[in-house]
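Lab notebook: predicted structure, single chain.

Context: the supervisor wants predicted structures on file for every construct in the current expression panel, including those that have not yet been purified. This is the next one on the list. No modifications to the sequence; it matches the entry in the shared construct table.
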Amino acid sequence: MRMIASAAGVSALLLLGACSSTPPKLNQQELTAKRQSTLNVYDDNRVGLKSYRLNERNNVSWIWSKDKDRVLGLLIDDNIFNVRDLQSMTSRRLASRGGSQFEISVVFKNGEKRTASAGYGWIPEERKDGHFGPAWVLCDKNKNCSARRLVSETGSYNDLGKLLTSVSERDLAQEISVRNPDRFSGIYADVRTNNDSSAVPILDGLSEVVVLTEEQRDDIEQRLREVNRKRKAFAAERERAAQEQEAAILREAELMRKGAKVGTRTNCGQIYQMNLPMVGVQTMFGMQQIELARLFGPSANCRFNNGVYIGR
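Prediction complete. Output recorded below exactly as produced.
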């Protein structure tokens, strides 16, 4: 009898579930438990990502985390997944009335696939317009998740606790050569990386985020270190060359001043008159009387301001 009663009870529950149009709403504790149930946490939770727009495959951003104990998660369908367990995420724009909406397709390393809508538009549950869809979340090893940012939300200043660092492939691939220094004027410092909200990948329109292997992630950091090493070496070489050039200009100036006479070439032209401490110089602004001690040899620059000599 107990078996029959139990079966009848189960049948009634199944019938009730079949008649219900919406699943029962979970309380906050149940919702948290559901989200945590799919979140895998590893000894090393660092992750590497390749982000780009599908119509601009050469415009790549490399993104990675450095903290082993913090997890970059993806919240989708009320489940949180460690991004390390994903293979890729792709978005495509959907035709919609009012607002911008996208379909986010997620492929897992185990072959599972999920899709969800995202973007900005009407949210029936909240009865208002707003952002919606899957979100990046920041979690610790105890599966406590705090910072959250929708994957398709642009203009957000949420930096997920500065978990991520990014660099563009264009900056990373830019080579510097002392044989062609003028082309790289002003970029001798380290490659510019981002560690703020701009490092968080955005999935809107035709865009894709690919999860890197550990080896690929480490390779990006190694490339960055190597490029910065080359930039520092280039900067040191430029500084050494500039110091040598300055010393040569000063030596030339000293010799010119000691042997100055009519016909001597200076940085601004030939001397046509000696009237020490002044000398007459045929300059681009005509004949000028300039103090000899302020003149340099012909390899130095000559600068005037409003027709008045101001040095090299």
